[in-house]
Write a structure and sequence with these properties.
- The chain has helices spanning about 5-25, 35-40, 45-50, 55-80, 85-95, 100, 110-120, 125-140, 155-170, 175-190.
- By secondary structure, it is mainly alpha-helical.
- Helix 1 (about 5-25) packs across helix 4 (about 55-80) and helix 4 (about 55-80) packs parallel to helix 8.
- The protein starts with 5 loop residues before the first helix and ends with a helix.
Length: about 190
């Protein structure tokens, strides 16, 4: 079999990062390289032509997941003509939905990657990207005039409520409590606004 073109190699890398981003959110970063490459439709050996290590892929896949999240926030603002409150409300509605609860692979990287990032070590690129993503998400959720989301910022409190509700709802998915958690968090975030 001949060598792949540079364009094909770049496409293969993009495919692996995208697949890893979804699988890591769905199953955790412990997914094996063999399973990951199979899901991407590529050979196990092709992995090492693209990445120095699995940790390097975790770093890149984490950055990819947060880039997608940032794009969703920008699209929400655009959809609502820059009306931050309307974009925030739409995000809260979607975030605290049964559909988001059940779609872990395409869901929020804040909730899906928290435990793996926490266990991954402080010097990792994934931790830095995750932290920046949390800061940006909190800033997006902040009230007008509190966009920094700094110490005591309401954006941080809102993100914590979203995150906690989603994680608890996923953990209790097979009980009525799951939807009750989503409903209660939604009310807490939207009734006072």
């Amino acid at each position: 079999m001949g060598r792949v073109s540079q364009a094909q190699a770049e496409e293969n890398r993009r495919q692996v990062v995208d697949t890893a981003s979804r699988l890591f959110r769905e199953q955790g970063t412990h997914v094996s390289v063999a399973d990951l490459m199979k899901a991407a439709g590529l050979t196990h050996g092709a992995f090492y032509k693209q990445f120095a290590s699995k940790e390097a892929l975790v770093d890149e896949a984490t950055a990819h997941a947060f880039a997608e999240l940032t794009q969703r926030h920008a699209a929400g603002l655009e959809r609502y003509c820059g009306r931050r409150d309307a974009a925030q409300r739409a995000l809260i509605d979607a975030y605290l939905s049964v559909e988001h609860r059940d779609d872990v692979a395409d869901g929020c990287p804040v909730a899906a990657l928290a435990v793996d990032v926490a266990r991954g070590g402080e010097d990792r690129e994934a931790r830095r990207v995750y932290t920046e993503g949390v800061v940006d998400f909190a800033a997006f959720l902040a009230s007008a005039g509190d966009e920094e989301g700094g110490e005591g910022g309401d954006g941080i409190a809102r993100l914590c409520t979203l995150f906690g509700a989603l994680v608890l709802s996923r953990a209790t998915k097979d009980s009525p409590l799951s939807e009750e958690i989503l409903t209660a968090a939604h009310a807490a975030l939207t009734e006072a606004r």
